[in-house]
Please model this.
Amino acid sequence: MNFKVLCSDLDGTLLSTKNDVSEFTISEINRIKEKVKIILVSARMPKSMTYLQQRMGIQDNPIICYNGALVMSGTKELSSTSIPTENIDELYDRCKCYNIKLGLYHKDEWCVSENSERVEKEIFNTRAEPIFEPTEKTLERWRENNSGPHKIMLMGTKENMDDITLVMTNKFSSVLNHYRSNDTLIEVAPKTTSKLKAIATLLEPKTTLKEVIAFGDNYNDIEMLKNVGYGVAVCNARNEAKQIADAITLTNKENGVAQFIKDHL
Model:
């Protein structure tokens, strides 16, 4: 297989542990990186991706953060799309009714109102520290700076996530993208953004999506896997992702991406 660009999701895909890549993955990326451009594509914030770039020696390549809402090349911002203020206010009001907490992300800022087991897991997984402040204060501060969140994380129990999922689908699906990370988390992004759209903006003039191979595992990877030249799902992926993929590799814990690279690229 010959491709000009390799795009990979991180959590549940390229990462063999919660917050790192394996030595096997590093060696395989190093083997092909001179011939294939490696682009990391994630829901993470920039600083939770750049340490992984450095581990693999691909820090000169751009990264796609927040499912495409923010695209960076080093310290240079290539594109940025935030969630509109009116959508945030209405969503926040709805979440308070269900006792759902918000994690707010803008560039390398991650703001939460209080610490919790979920927040501690996120600190460990992403190697990032949050700013602890009331949600109202965060939103007010960002408004004063004419900015807004690139991503909102809804955090709660399985039961109130089930409830808010119906609200998100019925009330916000026309203005916001959302997907269930797991039973207790929902990630919310601007409607106009996606991993696939961000990838398309980074292609060289004579390069097409058909010359891109991509790896993923979750709902937010489906469009990407379906529309690039070759989409590969890891074995631990959502069934919906595996059903549309061109191939299925080993699980992330078994270094599925690295093994596929070794066998086919």
In short: The two ends are 5 Å apart (CA to CA). The chain has a mean pLDDT of 95. The first strand starts at residue 5 and ends at 8. The longest helix spans residues 158-172.
